[in-house]
């Protein structure tokens, strides 16, 4: 019934389409305000989802301080740092996409999103090497933990790897979702859809990506540094 | 909906034109009659009606499980089912009633239908998300029901670990179903918050919103802020069940009390997801049937937000006997009692509204009376439970069962039935037989008391909840309770019969049969697809404005 702000597929190249107001909204401003508010609320639920894992971490770190400290030192700090830098840079390119969308430079929006997605892919590749090393030496969750390393024979180490794999796994899942979202918005940019009056989709897609970055910025010190 | 009708802003001073365009604007019920026009509709009213149909079906399923439990407890030993079936029955009774009936019922059915009408909007902010929310509920329900039919679950609806991760019954699909249903709840809440912020018609300020909208708004805040935590904890239990991670298993260094904290951080606020909509419904009904403006509008509105807020700090009272420190127990006791303060504000304001009102004792008002009684009785026992020293002997006895059925179920059922009768003419354009309405209301209220007052006495005498067998001395009260449940079922059966009859053969209702001043009555019954015909109504007064003699007449309905 109500059409979204998606523009018709066929319009003159180089001319951004006029944004459509869905029939139940009073104006374009109201429609965009609603979209932003909805996204902020959704991001709040995402943060609360991860908050549950942070509570688990805090609880078990309190129960097993030695085990958690020992296991934390067996994470690859170099790869973790590189990944943090990659994600922060990708957040920058996502923000630049919004900047270009406001200026109706749809070409640059596409370029920025391709860069963002490539960096996301890089993040996952590095994560893959980290995971495969952990699987190889047996630093696995709970009952699957088999690493014979003497410094890891402390109570709480398997619990640490449970939380490590759960939280980085859930975060990795969000990275994949974010890549899909950015690819979809990039596809719309490729159809030359965005302009100063109509860039909500770019803004919301980037907001989601910033959240993925933000969660990692908390996960990195929690798992690798302390 | 054509793009040309993209503006809903009313002309200043415009009034609804009675009868105008009537022939050209069919009601939402007949505007498109194909199955597809219903299943893929983006109209909030049709989505509301579909929610209503489904939650009624889930209510029937949950009710059948309840009767299995009650009839099993008719005699001290085995009666109609074996112990394992009994465990599955009370678990599924809880899961179905809470996740599939009480949480989605009023927001899904009546919130979806009424919220945009009360805000003078054409629809909710995100119509497609709204439809998705319905199908997430049904998808989650399908997975959970598949789990029920393939083994069921015997943990009780609280899924306490480590039992739930060790039992051989099929926990994983049912919890995964509940996880998906959580997404549905978040989507509905998010949609309502954004709708309330952005879709109010000109003239509807925050303090001119109907109290039902305030209640839905407070509910939506809880849904958005609490449900993700439940989602995570359910995922952890599913993971634990499938892979034995040990995160909540003390044998592997896990902490089952952490599960309880995370679980109740959602599930205690969830109680207010269930009762806050009821409070909203009742604020509408008490004003309409007392012919008076609501007493203390702002206090009622803010107390909804107050309940939502302190509801987040009350979870610890579920863990008075979990080894929590005395200091913690004291803090959580006081925080829990604050909920009683905000609820009392509402109760006093409702009573103040009825006082010296011209009471029109129709079926919804009969349910209001029952509601007031259940809320006060259930709420007072809640304050008693918040007292740690009293909680210890009552813990996990039938006193708990009776308490939460009084406040959570009693109040919600009263409000659901009241809303069903109050808004029936608005939703379907038909009237029902008042006499049958009052008879069934009396039966349901009586039946409810007869079911749960014996359970208060049983709990006080020490009968634990969830037990399959019990000593002889508890039998009289259990028989009384089962008889009450039968009475209750009869009341619902009668309602189902005459409402179905009215749906087909009922007289056509006028646009505003109760002479209510609620905003939702400013359009036809049933409303047209776009909610309002012609220019939008003008909102100059408060939503429950009955007392100004110059404005004593209800504005002309469309």
From TrEMBL, chain A:
<protein>
    <submittedName>
        <fullName>Cytochrome C oxidase subunit III</fullName>
    </submittedName>
</protein>
<dbReference type="Pfam" id="PF00510">
    <property type="entry name" value="COX3"/>
</dbReference>
<comment type="similarity">
    <text>Belongs to the cytochrome c oxidase subunit 3 family.</text>
</comment>
<feature type="transmembrane region" description="Helical">
    <location>
        <begin position="110"/>
        <end position="129"/>
    </location>
</feature>
<feature type="transmembrane region" description="Helical">
    <location>
        <begin position="80"/>
        <end position="98"/>
    </location>
</feature>
<dbReference type="GO" id="GO:0004129">
    <property type="term" value="F:cytochrome-c oxidase activity"/>
</dbReference>
<keyword id="KW-0472">Membrane</keyword>
<feature type="transmembrane region" description="Helical">
    <location>
        <begin position="161"/>
        <end position="187"/>
    </location>
</feature>
<keyword id="KW-0812">Transmembrane</keyword>
<dbReference type="InterPro" id="IPR035973">
    <property type="entry name" value="Cyt_c_oxidase_su3-like_sf"/>
</dbReference>
<dbReference type="InterPro" id="IPR024791">
    <property type="entry name" value="Cyt_c/ubiquinol_Oxase_su3"/>
</dbReference>
<feature type="domain" description="Heme-copper oxidase subunit III family profile">
    <location>
        <begin position="32"/>
        <end position="226"/>
    </location>
</feature>
<dbReference type="InterPro" id="IPR013833">
    <property type="entry name" value="Cyt_c_oxidase_su3_a-hlx"/>
</dbReference>
<feature type="transmembrane region" description="Helical">
    <location>
        <begin position="37"/>
        <end position="60"/>
    </location>
</feature>
<dbReference type="GO" id="GO:0005886">
    <property type="term" value="C:plasma membrane"/>
</dbReference>
<feature type="transmembrane region" description="Helical">
    <location>
        <begin position="208"/>
        <end position="225"/>
    </location>
</feature>
<dbReference type="InterPro" id="IPR000298">
    <property type="entry name" value="Cyt_c_oxidase-like_su3"/>
</dbReference>
<dbReference type="GO" id="GO:0019646">
    <property type="term" value="P:aerobic electron transport chain"/>
</dbReference>
<keyword id="KW-1133">Transmembrane helix</keyword>
TrEMBL record, chain B:
<keyword id="KW-0813">Transport</keyword>
<feature type="transmembrane region" description="Helical">
    <location>
        <begin position="258"/>
        <end position="282"/>
    </location>
</feature>
<keyword id="KW-0479">Metal-binding</keyword>
<feature type="transmembrane region" description="Helical">
    <location>
        <begin position="398"/>
        <end position="424"/>
    </location>
</feature>
<feature type="transmembrane region" description="Helical">
    <location>
        <begin position="365"/>
        <end position="386"/>
    </location>
</feature>
<feature type="domain" description="Cytochrome oxidase subunit I profile">
    <location>
        <begin position="38"/>
        <end position="540"/>
    </location>
</feature>
<dbReference type="InterPro" id="IPR000883">
    <property type="entry name" value="Cyt_C_Oxase_1"/>
</dbReference>
<dbReference type="GO" id="GO:0015990">
    <property type="term" value="P:electron transport coupled proton transport"/>
</dbReference>
<feature type="compositionally biased region" description="Low complexity">
    <location>
        <begin position="9"/>
        <end position="18"/>
    </location>
</feature>
<dbReference type="GO" id="GO:0020037">
    <property type="term" value="F:heme binding"/>
</dbReference>
<dbReference type="InterPro" id="IPR036927">
    <property type="entry name" value="Cyt_c_oxase-like_su1_sf"/>
</dbReference>
<feature type="transmembrane region" description="Helical">
    <location>
        <begin position="327"/>
        <end position="345"/>
    </location>
</feature>
<keyword id="KW-0408">Iron</keyword>
<dbReference type="GO" id="GO:0022904">
    <property type="term" value="P:respiratory electron transport chain"/>
</dbReference>
<dbReference type="InterPro" id="IPR023616">
    <property type="entry name" value="Cyt_c_oxase-like_su1_dom"/>
</dbReference>
<keyword id="KW-0472">Membrane</keyword>
<protein>
    <submittedName>
        <fullName>Cytochrome c oxidase subunit I</fullName>
    </submittedName>
</protein>
<feature type="transmembrane region" description="Helical">
    <location>
        <begin position="214"/>
        <end position="238"/>
    </location>
</feature>
<dbReference type="Pfam" id="PF00115">
    <property type="entry name" value="COX1"/>
</dbReference>
<feature type="transmembrane region" description="Helical">
    <location>
        <begin position="477"/>
        <end position="501"/>
    </location>
</feature>
<feature type="transmembrane region" description="Helical">
    <location>
        <begin position="436"/>
        <end position="457"/>
    </location>
</feature>
<feature type="region of interest" description="Disordered">
    <location>
        <begin position="1"/>
        <end position="27"/>
    </location>
</feature>
């Amino acid at each position: 019934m109500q059409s979204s702000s998606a523009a018709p597929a066929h319009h003159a190249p180089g001319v951004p389409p006029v944004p459509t107001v869905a029939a139940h909204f009073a104006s374009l401003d109201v429609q965009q305000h609603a979209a932003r508010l909805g996204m902020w609320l959704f991001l709040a639920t995402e943060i609360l989802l991860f908050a549950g894992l942070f509570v688990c971490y805090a609880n078990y770190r309190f129960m097993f301080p030695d085990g958690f400290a020992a296991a934390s030192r067996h994470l690859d700090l170099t790869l973790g740092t590189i990944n943090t830098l990659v994600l922060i840079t990708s957040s920058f390119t996502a923000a630049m996409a919004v900047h270009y969308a406001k200026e109706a430079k749809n070409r640059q929006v596409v370029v920025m999103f391709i860069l963002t997605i490539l960096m996301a892919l890089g993040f996952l590749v590095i994560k893959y090497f980290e995971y495969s090393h952990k699987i190889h030496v047996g630093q696995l969750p709970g009952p699957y933990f088999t690493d014979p390393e003497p410094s890891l024979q402390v109570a709480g180490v398997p619990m640490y790897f449970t939380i490590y794999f759960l939280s980085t796994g859930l975060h990795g899942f969000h990275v994949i979702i974010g890549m899909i979202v950015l690819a979809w918005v990039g596809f719309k940019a490729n159809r030359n859809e965005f302009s100063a009056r109509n860039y909500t989709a770019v803004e919301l897609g980037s907001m989601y990506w910033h959240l993925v970055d933000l969660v990692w910025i908390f996960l990195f010190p929690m798992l690798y540094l302390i | 909906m054509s793009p040309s009708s993209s503006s809903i802003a009313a002309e200043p001073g415009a009034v609804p034109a009675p009868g105008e365009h009537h022939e050209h604007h069919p009601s939402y019920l007949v505007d498109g009659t194909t199955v597809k026009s219903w299943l893929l509709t983006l109209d909030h009213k049709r989505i509301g009606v579909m929610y209503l149909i489904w939650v009624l079906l889930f209510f029937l399923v949950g009710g059948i499980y309840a009767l299995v439990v009650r009839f099993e407890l008719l005699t001290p030993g085995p009666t109609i089912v074996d112990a394992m079936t009994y465990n599955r029955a009370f678990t599924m009774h809880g899961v179905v009633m809470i996740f599939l009936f009480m949480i989605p019922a009023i927001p899904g059915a009546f919130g979806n239908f009424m919220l945009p009408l009360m805000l003078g909007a054409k629809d909710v902010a995100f119509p497609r998300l709204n439809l998705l929310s319905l199908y997430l509920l049904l998808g989650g329900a399908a997975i959970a029901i598949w789990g029920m039919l393939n083994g069921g679950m015997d943990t009780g609806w609280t899924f306490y670990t480590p039992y739930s991760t060790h039992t051989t019954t099929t926990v994983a699909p049912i919890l995964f179903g509940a996880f998906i249903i959580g997404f549905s709840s978040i989507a509905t809440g998010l949609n309502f918050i954004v709708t309330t912020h952005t879709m109010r018609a000109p003239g509807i300020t925050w303090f001119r919103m109907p109290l039902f909208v305030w209640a839905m708004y407070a509910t939506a805040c809880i849904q958005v802020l609490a449900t993700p935590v439940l989602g995570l904890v359910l995922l952890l239990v599913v993971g634990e069940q499938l892979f034995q991670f040990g995160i909540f298993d003390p044998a592997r260094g896990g902490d089952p009390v952490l599960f309880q904290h995370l679980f109740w951080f959602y599930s205690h606020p969830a109680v207010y997801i269930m009762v806050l909509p009821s409070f909203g419904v009742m604020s509408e009904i008490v004003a309409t049937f007392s012919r008076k403006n609501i007493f203390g509008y702002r206090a009622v509105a803010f107390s909804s937000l107050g309940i939502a807020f302190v509801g987040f700090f009350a979870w610890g009272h579920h863990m008075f006997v979990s080894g929590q420190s005395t200091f913690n127990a004291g803090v959580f006791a006081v925080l829990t009692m604050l909920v009683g303060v905000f609820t009392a504000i509402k109760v006093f304001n409702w009573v103040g509204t009825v006082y010296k009102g011209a009471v029109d004792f129709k079926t919804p008002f009969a349910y209001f009376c029952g509601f007031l009684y259940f809320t006060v009785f259930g709420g007072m026992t809640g304050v008693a439970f918040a007292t740690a020293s009293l909680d210890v002997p009552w813990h996990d006895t039938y006193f708990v069962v009776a308490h939460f059925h009084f406040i959570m179920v009693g109040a919600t059922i009263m409000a659901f039935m009241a809303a069903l009768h109050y808004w029936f003419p608005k939703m379907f354009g038909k009237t029902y037989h008042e006499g049958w309405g009052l008879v069934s209301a009396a039966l349901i209220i009586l039946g409810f008391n007869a079911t749960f007052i014996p359970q208060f006495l049983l709990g006080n005498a020490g009968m634990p909840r969830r037990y399959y067998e019990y000593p002889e001395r508890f039998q009289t009260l259990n028989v009384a309770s089962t008889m009450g449940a039968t009475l209750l079922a009869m009341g619902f059966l009668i309602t189902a019969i005459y409402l179905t009859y009215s749906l087909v053969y009922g007289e056509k209702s006028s646009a505003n049969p109760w002479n209510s001043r609620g905003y939702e009555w400013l359009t036809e019954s049933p409303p047209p697809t776009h909610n309002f015909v012609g220019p939008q109504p003008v909102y100059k007064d408060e939503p429950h404005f009955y007392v100004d003699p110059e404005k004593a007449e209800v504005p002309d309905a469309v």
